[in-house]
Amino acid sequence: MFSYLELVELPNGDIVLQRADDDGEPLVVISFSEESRQFMTAPPLEVARAMIQAGIQVAADDGGMAIEEELEEDELSAEESQGDTKTVH
User: Fold this and answer.
1) Rounded CA gap, 75 and 69, in Å?
2) 10 burial type by CB count under 10 A (0-12 exposed, 13-18 middle, 19+ buried)
3) How does pLDDT run along the chain (89 residues), one tens digit per residue?
4) In 10 A of CB 15, how many CB atoms?
5) What pLDDT was estimated at residue 56?
6) How far is CA 49 from CA 21, 42, 69, 70, 82, in A?
7) What is the distance between the alpha carbons of residues 24 and 34, in angstroms, rounded to a whole number?
8) Is residue 43 situated within a structural domain?
9) In a domain, 87, yes or no
10) Residue 89 domain-assigned?
C-alpha cells in the first residue's frame, strides 16, 4: 500500500513533510529564519518543496552518493593525519 506525502506549512511557520493519512511525527521539518525569509523570492513552501525534491534526487543517485562518501573519507583521512580539527557547515 502506498502512502501519499504532503508538505504543510504550520501556524508557527515551520514546513513539514508528512504522510497524508497519518497524524504522527513528520518525516522532515524545515524552519526558515525570518532573515532568510526576507531574502526569498519564492514562497517558503515552494523553496521547501525544491529542497525536498533535491534531497530525494540525491538519495536516489547511488553513484553520486558513493563518490561523495569516498571524497569525505579521503578528506577525513587527510585531516586526521594533519591533526587539525575543522568544522564543515
Assistant:
1) 10
2) exposed
3) 678 999 999 999 999 999 998 888 999 999 999 999 999 999 999 999 999 999 888 888 765 555 566 666 666 665 555 555 555 44
4) 21
5) 85
6) 19, 11, 25, 29, 40
7) 27
8) yes
9) no
10) no
Three-class secondary structure of residue 3 per DSSP: coil
Partners of 29 in the beta sheet? 16
What torsion do the CA atoms of 87, 53, 25, 39 make, to the nearest 10 degrees? 60
How many whole angstroms separate alpha carbon 17 and alpha carbon 28? 5
- CA–CA gap between residue 12 and residue 30 (Å, rounded): 11
* Cell matching residue 34: 525570518
Domain total for the chain?
A: 1
Instruction: Identify whether the C-beta of residue 22 lies closer than 8 Å to the C-beta of residue 14.
Output: no
Question: What cell numbers appear for 23 in the block?
Answer: 497524524
pTM of the model: 0.63
